[in-house]
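Escalated from tier 1: zinc ion holo job.
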Amino acid sequence: MITDTVASAVAFETVIGLEIHAQLVTKSKMFCGCSAAAFAGEPNANVCPVCMGMPGVLPVINREAVRQAVRVALALHGTVQRESKFDRKNYTYPDLPKGYQISQYDLPLSRGGFVAVLTEAGERRVGITRVHMEEDTGRSLHRTHPDGSGYSLVDLNRAGVPLLEIVSEPDMRSPEEARQYLVTLRDILRYIGASTGNMEEGALRCDANISLRPQGASEFGAKVEIKNVNSFRGVYRAIQYEVQRQAEVLRAGGTLIQETRGWSEERGVTLPQRTKEYADDYRYFPEPDLPTLVLSDAFIAEARASLPELPDARRHRYSTDFGVNVSDAAALSGSRELGDYFEAITDGTTDRTRIALATALITNDWLTLHNERGLSLADAPSAPDVRGLMDLIERGVISRSTAKEVFAAMVETRQRADVIVKERGLAQQSDAGALTAMIERAIADNPKMVADYNKNPNALNALVGQVMKMSRGTANNQVVRELLIQRLAATE
Ligand SMILES: [Zn+2]
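Tier 2 regenerated the structure:
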């Protein structure tokens, strides 16, 4: 028998799919020669009859946009289609001058593929349904007259800028997974230089499809689409909110409708926008002004050959070849520049201890400074200078904890480690003569610590700490320890 309590405790599975629009890095727009630098300059500075939708003009496909699109599709392990087709997606909107957007409908540029996403539970593959090309729309600016009445201005700089739409399978199961997928995808786009992936500037936009279904069910529930969330945090929060909202409706015995909702960043809620259009509403038909897009094997091969090592391949290599743990490997391969820096520092060494030291210097020392002070990699010490610092640690000239201070000083002063160590007197003191006076003082000043040690050898740490403090951290910890044990044994 199912009681009310049991029914209301039904667990739901969250099903999330993301549609990402990424602006491709090209000099000119998708179908005309206007500058694609859509975010700089005066409104309507980068426009021509083609992107303004004047009658009688003809679009021409931008070869570089296609090349970048193919590179993205290959980086996502997709199957690039030898033939694809452009279609008109019809709708009316003030910032869409032609009354339709040129997109790809039933024959997209690429099908299939996946993104390997690192989650707490390990690596998961999120499937890619398709990747297709389209053009961006313009932008409406809403203003107010002095009398309070409103008016709108249209800026067409962005109209016709090449976009790539990347549609995922509904493979994600939590807001965190969706966020992680988005970050991973952004990293890939940046690695290959196909898009800046900058969400704040609108170069990367995300629509999220979310539905819930009872745990174990195979059919999907009614899908809600959240439009144009413009930050990584926003994507996470919007999905989290929507999951909660849908679960509450279902638990209260209500039904969900398929609809489009907007995310309000200020209020932290999603709000209904309109009932979801179906594909029929767009009256898609083949773009009569453009030929079928036919790609040669040579064109695709060239695009493939131009791809650098991708973040997931790099992460695997750091784990298997270098013995770096999974989360450090992910941090090091998160950006192409940081991975290059790591490899310049390790400089082909196979010494695991040295690799571990380089890993720690980057993931702890450097990334902490980078995050706290908003530094860029250009502010980091050069790879040869970091190798110099590692030599000092390995030779026992400075301790690992002193190295932290030296590293920060290297960033601030741009000086070499050996110069800083010498100027600031940071070299470790291993000389028994120099340390003995400090040891004698520590023993004389702290009779309680000595008594504790006589009862429990672990209490030695407190006395070691006293000596380290007196030496401002420069005493060789191991030598102090040995000298203290000898000295205290002699007094027993
Ligand atoms: Zn134009």
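The longest strand covers residues 122-135.
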